[in-house]
Amino acid sequence: MRCLICHVETIPDVTWVTFWKPSVQKKICQECEEQMDKITASFCPGCHRPGHEGVCHDCEKWEKTNPGLLERNVAAFPYNEFNKELVARWKYRGDFVVLDAYKEHLQNVWLSSFFKGRQVLSVPLSSKRLDERGFNQSEAISYALEEEPFSVFERSHSEKQSKRGRKDRMQSENPFRLLHPISDPVVIVDDIYTTGRTVRHMASLLKEQGCPSVSSFTIFR
Length: 221
Known about the structure:
The chain is globular. 29% of the residues are buried. It has a 4-stranded parallel beta sheet with strand order 1-6-5-2. A two-stranded antiparallel sheet has the order 3-4. The two termini are 30 Å apart. Helix content is 37%, strand content 13%. The protein has helices at residues 16-20, 30-36, 57-65, 81-92, 98-112, 127-133, 137-144, 166-171, 197-208; strands spanning 73-77, 119-122, 153-155, 176-178, 186-192, 214-220. The protein has 2 domains: 1-33, no CATH class; 66-159 and 173-221, Rossmann fold (3-Layer(aba) Sandwich), CATH 3.40.50.
């Protein structure tokens, strides 16, 4: 089998255990797996910012300006340079198998987050953006987690968040409209948590309509 990312042949390790029992063929090579990295110890409990002890400054600021909107965000991988390139391949160039490289660890983090059982909400794309990409990345991640996403929002404009600076993102008007209220705890699934503005825009609408708890789950932080 070849690595889904760099396409070199993956050779499973041979140990006394695998000698008697065939090993599971890995989808990614060791070098790519190391570059993808994983968020393990030392992360902000509020947003999962890697390499941070305790609550980070951004989360402290959010709680002062918009208290109680988001319970927490859980992420699986850091948004490093290697992962940025993979996102570009998957999200903008249609290399859909890239998501499979993250799938196993994503599912493990999902189960350990104790979000399973909550309603999973997708982040909507504008019709223009959906036509450009051909798929909704939020829904694709949900299916990779073996969850059925619910669509309860619509987006009012098609401007790319990735093209906006941090200040513009933080000051942006809410681009979403809630189609109907939800009375159960929910988790919003998306690809990247950058400033946290997107999920808090959605959380504010949910909370206004009586949702008791809103969290988010992302591949990257």
